[in-house]
């Protein structure tokens, strides 16, 4: 297939592109830095900085991952708007491209996040669960609504509500691993908040699954079947590294330091992949300890 990808240069995108390249797909990439894209990704791609540059191409599928990083900067009103605009504008550009293509692609896989559900306390969260209205929910809902517009062109749209993506060279483990290795690991707040997580390899496999299964559309929770609390995550990672995790960062300190963004650390959703599993997807890493073992042991 000829697959157009946004966000291909990112943490998820790089692994996805390597996987799709191994499957002999041809990769077309939209990047703000098209000249560097192939080097960053590490496999051959055709890159441009605008979607419309591909209007005379044949495109079989689209995968939409681009967006301003959620956790890089404090959520000022301006930064919150940037988080929304960066996702809406890249997704809208795909819609505009579909209007110009002789034949629109068959499928769009578009990223969203567990933040769609907002704070859900301890209850189990499936795709049917009513979301809690807060910024993270509004951000994801706006992004998803924009992606669904492509249905008007006859495109099958599948949305992946992604949990915390785990691997060693990016995402949240990148800053956590050295901290825990030095013995400075610890839980955040009271540690009861849920952290839905997914090994990056499983996320790539899930995206590939959604790409090829023509009967699947709508929203899919992309998190491992066993989400854990922050306390369990902390203990499991510390045990895996043979280090203590004695510290607790009090909720008040996090709130003071991060403002509204602190909700990303202090609240969560016990999100389970109900629709992916019902469709027959199996996780290579269903349990956290097993996923962390694979990540920590690699390249040791
Ligand atoms: N990683 C996670 O744990 C996680 C969890 C839930 C959801 N997600 C979502 O999944 C998607 C992929 O995650 P990721 O970790 O791979 O993200 P990432 O590493 O931050 O990469 C995202 C890509 O988006 C593009 N981008 C960044 N800022 C942008 C902006 N202001 N405007 C337009 N494009 C911009 C960049 O591509 P160029 O520089 O090439 O333009 C970047 O490579 C993201 O949208 C993220 O919100 C990730």
From TrEMBL:
Region forming the signal peptide: none
Name this polypeptide is given: TIGR01777 family protein
Biological classification of the source: Bacteria, Pseudomonadati, Pseudomonadota, Gammaproteobacteria, Oceanospirillales
Database matches in InterPro entries: DUF1731 (IPR013549), Epimerase_deHydtase (IPR001509), NAD(P)-bd_dom_sf (IPR036291), SDR39U1 (IPR010099)
Family, per entry: Belongs to the NAD(P)-dependent epimerase/dehydratase family. SDR39U1 subfamily.
Annotated NAD-dependent epimerase/dehydratase domain residues: 3-223
Transmembrane segments annotated in the record for this chain: none
Record domain DUF1731: where: 249-295
Source organism (scientific name): Kushneria sinocarnis
Pfam families named among the record's database cross-references: DUF1731, Epimerase
Top-level taxon: Bacteria
